[in-house]
């Protein structure tokens, strides 16, 4: 995220980006591009969204519960399955799965047998008997059962069709993974898995305080500085003092060269991008505040009267700072990208260069959506609106 891509993206770049992040959170809100596609766009630039779907079907990435429901690379799925098999997760998905099995075990086994005999299924393959209210808590029984088997590992997602999950037996999905799936022998212990996830979290975050580490993979209990001491002693982590931080920071040893460049003032941020609310750069509110002095909460789950910035506000990254946010909606049929409201942070004074960079980032993001006409509503500060619009003529 330091600099924009230097060339057009290739298919392998997509898998490499997920590998660097260690996971890619899934969310289905579709007022702009669904979150996983937007997170990749911020890092890869213009690329076909179908590449992510193709990577899943080809077995180069897989779906599992990690931070939340996530894509991970085929190389990482073994550690996630081992973690969940050892009942280390207290995630709500596991709790719902346990309740579903307790109440419907016979029907769930019948569903599993159907898939075994007849092949993959979608939730939409089952007709809903009760026409309940809409919403994810009003899933039809078969959808709840499919999700329960997915959470417990008996089913996996073999592909998506119009973003709908297509479920198949885990053994069949694991058999097509690239690189091939290999269960760890001997099995990893709980301590080894937790250590692996801590190191992966620090590597993905770049630089972090101890208190921000556990959120990345939803580890419990929280990670302490005492727990990190052996990783410092082994050289796998490096301790760093950051100006204005009371607590020590940590960097993975693979980033030692970047760390030295940062110390020497040789890392220059030039990238401007719109971020998904589920981008790992901003999903941890405490870290976004501590790293960027940016107080961010996604507001789509709030009643409209309680929203300050809009239903689906996208943070704006500009040259290493989070300088604002915008509430957007892509009207694909009309080819219009509507910016309902754009807010620069109160301590940010937009310069001509910043406005040009932000306008160009919005225009490129809109064109990637197939909605190249940008329309701007409210703007704060209001005089910036006229300057932004000049770049979209």
List descriptors.
14 helices, Arc Repressor Mutant, subunit A, single chain, globular, 393 residues, 3 domains, alpha+beta, Aminopeptidase
Binned strand content? 15-25%
The domain tally reads 3
What is the distance, rounded to the nearest whole angstrom, between the alpha carbons of the first and last residues? 28 Å
Helix content: 25-40%
Characterize the largest beta sheet: strand count, sense, and whether it forms a barrel: 5 strands, mixed
Model regions low in confidence, pLDDT < 50 over at least 5 residues? 133-137
Q: Given the helix and strand composition, which structural class is it?
A: alpha+beta
Described by the principal axes of the CA atoms, the overall outline is globular
Total E-strand runs: 13
Nearest-angstrom radius of gyration?
22 Å
Oligomer: single chain
What's the rounded overall pLDDT mean?
Answer: 92
**Secondary-structure element order, N to C:** HEHHEEHHHEEHHEHHEEHEHEEEHEH
The side-by-side strand order for the widest beta sheet comes to: 9-10-11-12-13
Number of helices: 14
Structural account:
This protein has 393 residues and is α+β, with helices and mostly antiparallel strands. The chain has three domains: 11-123 and 142-176, no CATH class; 190-264, Arc Repressor Mutant, subunit A; 272-391, 3-Layer(aba) Sandwich (Aminopeptidase). It is built from 14 helices and 13 strands. A five-stranded mixed β-sheet has the order 9-10-11-12-13. A three-stranded antiparallel β-sheet has the order 1-3-2. A three-stranded antiparallel β-sheet has the order 6-8-7. β4 (155-161) and β5 (164-169) form a beta hairpin. α5 packs across α6. The chain is globular. The relative contact order is 0.10.
